[in-house]
Every structure is written in structure tokens, then in C-alpha cells.
Amino acid sequence: MPVKDSAKKALRQSVKRQSRNRAQKRNFRTLSKDSVTAIQSNEPEAADKVKATSKALDKAVQKGAIHKKTASRKKSRLVRKLNAISSDKK
Fold first, then answer.
1. How many Å apart are CA 67 and CA 60, to the nearest integer?
2. How far apart are CA 11 and CA 20, in angstroms?
3. How does pLDDT run across 19-65, given as a tens digit for each residue?
4. Would you say 48 and 13 are in contact if contact means Cβ atoms under 8 Å apart?
5. What is the band of 75 on the pLDDT scale with cuts at 50, 70, 90?
6. 20, 34, 65, 80: most buried, per Cβ within 10 A?
7. pLDDT at 66 over 80
8. How confident is the model at residue 87 (pLDDT cuts 50, 70, 90)?
């Protein structure tokens, strides 16, 4: 355990940030899994789920939970999967 007051405060802050970041990450991971399953099962609302996932990723970037390029990569992969399925339908 920290001894100095500043170290105690830093520990409190890091615990708060960690829980906030975990919540953000849990949210977009759950949404992305739902999106992938919707895409694979050809559900009509798959595009809406991908859009919600994209929004959650952008929020996580704003909050500093993940890096901007990580979010961009994840969004790109999701949209590519969605477009591959939609092009197969045609």
C-alpha cells in the first residue's frame, strides 16, 4: 500500500479509471460480438448493430479507453464483414 498522500490519491484515481475503461471495453466488445453473430446469421438488423458498435468504439476513443487506430481497425473489419455478406446476397 502507498505511504505518501499523493501516491494514495494516484492509486484511487487509477482504480476509478480502470473501472471506467473496463466498462467501456466491455460495452463495445459485447456489441461487436452481437454484430458479428448478426452478420453471420444474415439478420436484417445487422447494419444497425454495426452502427451501434461503431458508435460505442468512438465513445471509447473519446474517453481514452482505447486508441484511435484500434477503433478504426475494428470498425473497418466489421464493415468489411457486413459488406461481404451483403454482396453475397445480390
1. 8
2. 14
3. 999 999 999 999 999 999 999 999 989 999 999 999 999 999 999 99
4. no
5. very high
6. 65
7. yes
8. confident
Q: What are the phi and psi torsion angles at 60 (to 5°)?
A: -65, -35
Give yes or no for residue 90 having a pLDDT over 90: no
CA neighbor of 34 nearest in space, from 58, 51, 20: 51
CA 45 – CA 47 distance, rounded (Å): 5
Domains and CATH numbers, the chain: 5-89 (1.20.58.110)
C-alpha grid cell, residue 3: 505511504
Report the alpha-carbon distance of residue 8 to residue 18 in Å, rounded: 15
Separation of CA 78 from chain center: 11
Enter the C-alpha cell of residue 27: 460495452
